[in-house]
Amino acid sequence: xxxxxxxxxxxxxxxxxxxxxxxxxxxxxxxxxxxxxxxxxxxxxxxxxxxxxxxxxxxxxxxxxxxxxxxxxxxxxxxxxxxxxxxxxxxxxxxxxxxxxxxxxxxxxxxxxxxxxxxxxxxxxxxxxxxxxxxxxxxxxxxxxxxxxxxxxxxxxxxxxxxxxxxxxxxxxxxxxxxxxxxxxxxxxxxxxxxxxxxxxxxxxxxxxxxxx
Length: 213
What we know:
Strand content: under 5%
Distance between the termini: 166 Å
CATH class: Mainly Alpha
Number of helices: 5
Number of domains: 1
CATH architecture: Up-down Bundle
């Protein structure tokens, strides 16, 4: 009797699913290297204009440190004398602050004559010469001259601070903004002094002069 051999039917070979070929990856287009923007000619001109403005106001502030003591001495009221003395100290700080600005920009502090400030100071001197010593009318004139100076400085520092931001000098802009705030405070103080007493006292002097005549 023949040995039974278990005949195993070969299982149907299931064809293994063919692996799908991975889709060929297309090389991603290379991004063009970012080019650093070169400063345009206009930017260079603007930078030069900005630095020129700094030199201008630097001269103006240094000139004021010499003019303010004269205004203080010529003033009649103690309140105005004290205001002039206080602003002299502030102006000296502002000069040092501008020197810091030049340093931050890698520049040597240089002054360029400010014709506008020179004219305002000369006008102030003329007012002192043309008004009576010891009069409140002279104080009115000194306040008017001083406020013209403050308004010029407010316009200058405001413009320079904005220009500094445009040029990316944010640290410089903050310094200039500090000085701008001080100039506005000085202008407001002069208005308060004038309105509190000096303008009225000056008008009384006119009446007294009329009575003497």
